[in-house]
Amino acid sequence: MLIPHPLLGPRDAQEFTYLGDAALLNRPEGGDEAAFHAYTHLRDNPAGPHRELWYHEQGDRSWLVVTRDTATHEIVAAELAMDVKGAAR
Amino acid sequence: MADPTLAATPRLIPLCALGGEIPRQTSFGALTLIERPDVALASLAPRGGMATPAPFGLTLPQPGRCASAGDMTALWSGPGQWMIAADGQADTDFAAAVQAQAPGASVTDQTDGWVWIDIASAARGAPLDRLLEKLVNLPPAALQPGRAARTGLHHLGVFVMRQGADRLAVLGMRSAAGSLWHALTQAAQRLETRP
Amino acid sequence: MTRIPGGLVDRSRTLSFTFDGTRYEGHPGDTLASALMANGVRLVGRSFKYHRPRGIFSAGSEEPNALVTLRSGARAEPNTRATCVELYDGLAATSQNRWPCLDFDALAVNDIASPFLAAGFYYKTFMWPKPFWEKLYEPLIRRAAGLGALGRDPDPDAYDKGFLHCDLLVIGGGAAGLAAALTAGRAGASVILADEDFRLGGRLLMESHLLDDGPAAAWVAAAEADLDTMPNVRILRRTTVFGSYDHGIFGAIERVGDHLPRPETVRQTLWRITARHSILAAGATERHIPFADNDRPGILLGGALRAYVNRWGVTPQARDSDRVAIFTDNDDGHRTAADLVARGVPVLAVIDPRRDARRFGEYQLFSGATVTGSTGRRSLTSIEITRDGRSDVLECAVLGVSGGWNPNVHLASHHRGRPQWSQAHQAFLPPADLPPGMAVAGAAAGHGSPHAALRSGAQTAARLLDCSAALLPHAEDAPLCQLPLWHVPGRGRAWVDFQSDVTVKDIALAHRENMRSVEHLKRWTTLGMATDQGKTANVTALGVMAELTGASVAQTGTTVFRPPYTPVALAALGGGDSGMTFRPTRLTPTHGFAVAHGARLVEAGQWMRAQMFPRAGETHWRDTVDREVMAVRAGVGLCDVTTLGKIDVQGADAGAFLDRIYCNAMASLRVGKVRYGLMLREDGFAYDDGTCARLADTHYVVTTTTANAGLVYSRMEFARQCLWPDLDVQLISTTDAWAQIAVAGPKSRALLERVVDGFDMSNAAVPFMSCAALTVCGGVRARLFRISFSGELAYEIAVPARYGNALMARLADLGQDLGVTPYGTEALSVLRIEKGHAAAAELNGQTTAQMVGMGRMVSTRKDSIGAVMSRRKGLVSDTRRLVGLRAIDPAARIPAGAHLFAQGAARVTATDQGWVTSACWSPHLKTPIALGFLADGAERMGETIVAANPLEGDEVTLTVTSPHFIDPEGDRLRG
What we know:
The complex is a heterotrimer.
Chain A: E1 2-5, E2 9-12, E3 17-21, H1 33-41, E4 49-55, E5 63-69, E6 75-80, H2 81-88
Antiparallel strand pairs in A: 1-2, 3-4, 4-5, 5-6
Chain B: E1 25-28, E2 31-35, E3 40-45, E4 66-69, E5 72-78, E6 81-86, H1 94-101, E7 106-109, E8 114-121, H2 126-132, E9 147-153, E10 156-164, E11 167-173, H3 177-193
Antiparallel strand pairs in B: 1-2, 2-8, 3-6, 3-7, 4-5, 5-6, 8-11, 9-10, 10-11
Chain C: E1 15-19, E2 22-26, H1 32-38, E3 45-46, E4 53-54, E5 67-70, E6 77-81, E7 91-94, H2 109-112, H3 121-125, H4 132-144, E8 159-171, H5 175-186, E9 191-194, E10 210-211, E11 214-215, H6 216-228, E12 233-236, E13 239-245, E14 249-254, E15 268-280, E16 284-286, E17 299-301, H7 302-312, E18 324-328, H8 331-342, E19 347-352, E20 365-367, E21 369-375, E22 382-387, E23 390-395, E24 398-402, E25 405-407, E26 420-422, E27 427-429, E28 438-440, H9 450-465, E29 495-497, E30 502-503, H10 504-512, H11 518-525, H12 538-549, H13 553-556, H14 570-573, E31 586-587, H15 591-596, E32 600-604, E33 607-612, H16 621-634, E34 637-640, E35 645-650, H17 654-661, E36 674-680, E37 686-696, E38 699-704, H18 709-723, E39 730-733, E40 738-744, H19 748-752, E41 771-776, E42 780-785, E43 794-800, H20 804-814, E44 821-822, H21 825-835, H22 867-870, H23 873-876, E45 881-887, E46 899-902, E47 914-922, E48 927-934, E49 944-949, E50 954-961, H24 971-974
C-alpha cells in the first residue's frame, strides 16, 4: 500500500507501523475506570471506511490519521495526528 | 602497570563509526564511497511560540528538503525538527554552537549518533540513480538534488540527502555502520560488474 | 534431427547441453524445450500421480508437463519449465518423478492402479485408523508428493531487490505491450515494459503474420530499437510481473543470471514496482480438448506447435517423415496447419468437429469429426478419428490440439475481481472491477488478432495518459470462428489437468459426489493446484463441469487467481536478505575492545554484546561468570551498557510530559538528579523501566531497556503527538551518540577519579542517584550518572561514541591495581538477580507494578498512562509478589520458567502459585538462587516451596526470601 503522507507525498506502507483505530486519540480525562476500559479495550471493526493510526517509523516519525476503506484498501485521507488533535480543540 | 598519579594522560584516540582510526573509502566504477567522521551534527527543534531560527544564516528547509551554505547543511528531519551539519567540526561541541545560534530551542548533540557516508559519481547522476533503486523505495522526485528523505534501507532507518546530481550522503545509525556500509558497497560493486 | 529452416535462433553458433546425462546441441535463441525437440527428444518427464510418460505440451510459462531439474548440486532447481529455460552452453537438466529412469519408471504401476486413485482419493483413503497417520500415511504421501526434489545444500547464489517507480507499467512485450510502450514513451511518460521472455515480441515472434508487408519480427526489432532510444522507457526482459498489489504496487522477478552458466552478480532480482497506471498485455493461453489418452508425448497445443515451427525452426517429430495431425474446434488450428504446410512439414489431416469448417491450405480436412483415442507407449504413434459413429485409425507422431484461447487475466483478478464469461469470445475476459490504475489490452482483453492487439495497446495507453496513440503498422484482423468442444465424450481417460493428473472422469465423479461449487471441485480433485496453477486446465474443467450440470459456463463461474502468476523462488522473495543482510547488526562502541579481550559475543536483538570474557584456564562458562561477578562485588568491573535506549527529552513542559509517561513523578526531580522510573501500558500492566536524569530545568534523558528502546520511543512520540500535542516537548533518540560504560564495584570511585579532569567524585559531591556533566582524559565531554544495577557502589559514564573504545581501554589499563575486570551480559544478569532488580523476565507484559513490589510508585496525585487501569480490582487483588528463591540443596538447579507449588500440592493448574522468572548460580551466596512471582509472596518469607518443571520432570525445593539477596538496606550503593 501507499500512504499519502500529508507532508511528503505517497510513501510505501513498509515505512510505517500500524497501531489501529484512531479513537485512541480520545484518551479519557479523569479517573473513570469504565471510560478507560472502553478506551483501552473496545474497538469498532468496520468493513468500510476506518480512521486509523499509522506511525512513520522509518521516516519522519510522525503519527498519521489515515482514513482507509478496510474492504478495498482505498485511502481517502491522511492527516498529521497533531493537526487532527489541534482541530478537535 | 600504569601510574595512577600520572597527571598528563595521553588523549583518547577516537574511532570512526566503521571501527577504524581513519575513515573508510572505496570505489566501484564511477562511484566512490567515503566515510565522513569529521561532520558534526546536532538536532534543532524550535520550542513552542518561537520564531523559526536561521542558525549560521541557514534558511531551515521545507519538508523533504535540505539546504547548504558553505560548510553548513540543514536538513528537515520531521515536523518541527531539523538536523544541522557542519563539515570538519565533529571534534567541537557543535551542539553548543547551534544552541548559541538558536537560543531557547531544543538542541541535541547527534554527531556520534550517525555514520555519514558520502557517495560521489564520476559519471554524473545516472550511476547514483541506479544505485539508489537497489537501496531505497522512493519516487525519483524525492531523490532530486536538494531533497533529503528519511526512509528505510536494508531494514535500517536512514537519511538520504542528494546534495547534487552527482553526489549524495547516506546517514545511518552509528552502531549499524558496518551493515550499512556492506549494503552500500555490495550494491555498488554489483553495479560495477553489471551496469 | 527435426530442425527446419528459418526461425529466430542463431545457427552460426552451437551450444552444448545434457539431458539425463546425454549430450545434445542447440543454438542461442533456443529454449531447453526447443533444443530437446530439435534433437528428437519427445519423452521428457513423468506425470505427478500416475507416472505417465509426458512430453512438451506448450511453448511458454503455462507448461504443465516438461518440468525438469536444472543444474546440479547446490544449484539444482526442481520443477523448472523446459519451455522457459533459455539455453546456455553447458546446461545440464535431468528428468523428474521417475525411478530408476525416465524410460522405465517403477511407480508407473500407479497408472494400473488408477481406478483407486480417483478424485478425493486422499480424503477418502487416509482417514483411519488414526494411528496409521504418523507411521504410515504421512511418510507415504510425503514420498509420493511433489515432482523434483530440492537440494540439501545452501543456495550458493546471491539475490537482491530493488524499487522502481513509473507512470506506466506495461506487463507483456507482445503486440499490445509494444504498442502501449511506444505510445507512452513518445508521450514522455516514464514507462517500464516487462516481459517474461528473453526476447520481446510475444506471439508476434511465433506467427507468420506480416506487419506492413514485412515479417513481424522485423517490426518488433524496429520498435525495440525505437524504445531503446527513449531515456524515459525501461525495458525489463526475462522479468515476470507475478503479482498485483494495492495502490499500483507490483512484484516482479528479473532472471538476471539464469541464462548464464553462473550468474555474474545476482541470480535474480525482486523488483517492487510502484506504477501510477498499468496495462496488462499478458496475451492469451491456448486451451486443449480432452479426449481418451490425450496425454502422450507428441500431443501438444496447436499454437505451441506453430510457435516451435515459426520461432525456433523445429518440430516435435522424431523424424522428418513423421506425420502431423491437428485437432481443432476453431480457425486457429487451421492457421497452424497452413503454417506447417508452408514450411514443408507433412500435415496428414486436420480434424475439426465443425461440419462447416473450411480449409486454410493444402491438407486433408475431416470436418464434423473428433479425435477419440491415441496409441503409443512412450510417444504418439496413431490417433483414432470418429465421424458419425465410424472410427478410423490414422498413423501420426504429432498431434496439435487447439481448443481456443483464454485471455491471461490473472493479474487483473489479483484484487479478487472475478473474470467474466464472454459468449462471443467463448472465454473469460478480465473482470469489470480491475485493480485501480490498471487497464487490459491485446489478447488478454480478448483482442487477439495482430491488428486488434496493436490498436488496443496503443489506444489503452493513449487513454490512460491522455495522449495520442502511436502510429502502427497494417496487420491482419481476421475474426476467430469457434464452436467450443469442451471434451470428447467416450470411454478411457481424458486428461484435463496434466500436471495434477485430473481427468474428465474425476470431474464427473466429483460432481456425482456433490462437489457443485467450482471451489469444491478444485479442492476435491486438486485441479489447478499444481505448480502451473492449471493455466491449461481450469477453463476446460469449467466447461466440462458446465456440461455435466447442464448450466452455462457463466453460471458455473470460475475461481479467482492469486499471486504469483508463475512460481517464484523463495530465495528471490527474500530479496537477498540472508547472511550478513538478513538484518542489521549493531555493534557497541567498545566492540573492538571486547574482541581484543577475547569476549564471547551474544546477540541481543540486533546488538552484538559481550556475553563474557573467558580467560585461559577457565573450562566452563560459569568459571568466567563467577569470576566476573566476584570481581565486581570485591573490586571494580566494566561493562558496556550503550545498548540501553536513550531518549533526549526537552521543552518547557518536559517534566509535565514525563509525569504522564512514567507512573511515578518526574517533574519533581531536581536538576542533577536521577530517578528510577516505571512505565505502564494504558491497560495498567508494567512494560518498561529505566532511569531518568534531569540535566537541566527543561532537559531530561530517559533510558529504556535494550529490547524496548524503539517501542518506548514510538510510544513517547504517540503521547506527544496524539495525546498531548499542547505540551511543549521535543524528543530525539541519542542511543548511538553516547558510549555508556558501567563502572561498578566498591573501587569504582577510585578508578573513575583517575580519568576525570579535576572533578570532585566524593560521596557528597556525587551522591547516589545524581548526575553531572564533566570532562575526562583531558577534555573529552562526558556525562556521569551514579546509578547501580549490581547493588554495588557504581557509576555509568558516557562519552561521545567515538571515544567509547578508548575510554574502556583506558579504564581497564588504569585500574589494573584495583583488579578491574571487564564483564559481560551474563555477569550483569547474575549481579542484578542477586540484587533483586527486575528485568525483561519480570516485566514481561503480564505483570504489574504491584507484583514487582512497586505498587506504591504509581502516583495517585497525577494522571499517567496506565494509572487508572492499574487500580482495577482484578489487578489490585492479585497477591502474587516478586520474591527471592533459594535452593536448599546447593547442588540443585532451578529451571527458569518452572512453576511454584506448595509442598505436597498436586502439580496442576488449580494449585499453581506462581513461576520462576530468572535463575542463576549465585557466586556470592554459593547456592542457586532465583526470582519469581509467588501468590501471597510478601507474607511467605522463610517458607519452603517447590519449583516444578513438568516438561523435563524435575523439581527443586526452595526457600522463599526477600528478592534482595545482597545488601537489602542498600548501604553498598550509597557508600
